[in-house]
Amino acid sequence: MSRGTRVRRDAIVKLATTTGLASVEELSARFGVTASTIRRDLAQLESDGQLARTYGGVMPLVAHPEASLRQRLGEAFEAKRAIATWAAARIGTGETILLDSGSTTGALAHELRPAHDLTVATTGLTALQELVNAEHVRVECLGGTLRHLSQGFIGPLTEDALARMTFDRVFLGADAVTAEDGICEATLEQTRLKEIMARRSERVYVLVHAAKLGKRPFHAWARMPESWTLVTDSSAEDSAVRPFAASGVDVVVVDPDGTAR
Fold first, then answer.
1. How would DSSP label each residue in 83-116?
2. Can you give the residue ranges of the HTH deoR-type domain (predicted)?
């Protein structure tokens, strides 16, 4: 397969994930190739399990529209680092904190490696990898069933472990978040776990870069407690942030240097 074909097919998958339905004719015009070339692309992507097609050559979202952790690690890197820097500065000596799985919470774990007298419990492999050599950080792994896509633990064993601890702060990730419905995730198991994590913690922070604000990619939701803090980056439009502030959420917008506005 040529590099041009690979790039085009990757772009088709990304387009399907971000904007939804597209016809063969629309894709042909967009990429400047023939309709038969697009049909071959779609047939191969369907065979690979990356797309599902319907009648008339129209394709819905990819069969697994949730981005893998590997994909997310390369997205909005600077924004995530700034958010992580701000979040790390909130954590005090002697605290016990809880980190969700995900790339932004993994960036936060990276910032915590020099810490002393800190206990970090986590459901995420990324945070564990960051802290594996942090000798002065006590690390609690909340095991369970591993979701390979998100590289995090879920399920009854994870929930049972959470029931045995409480936390000064929890830092949650999200596939998307809205002021009305809270955190959006691909599965109900994930959203149930996030609700439990929030209930076990005194302070709740949701760490998301601006592209995730107000989006609804899935149909599973985690309801947020009455008091919680949304932390996002400085590329967020005022129109995206305003609904959260209007609903009583504490909103923090972080500049690239890790300081809040």
1. HHHHHHHHPPTT-EEEE-SSHHHHHHHHHTTT-S
2. 5-60
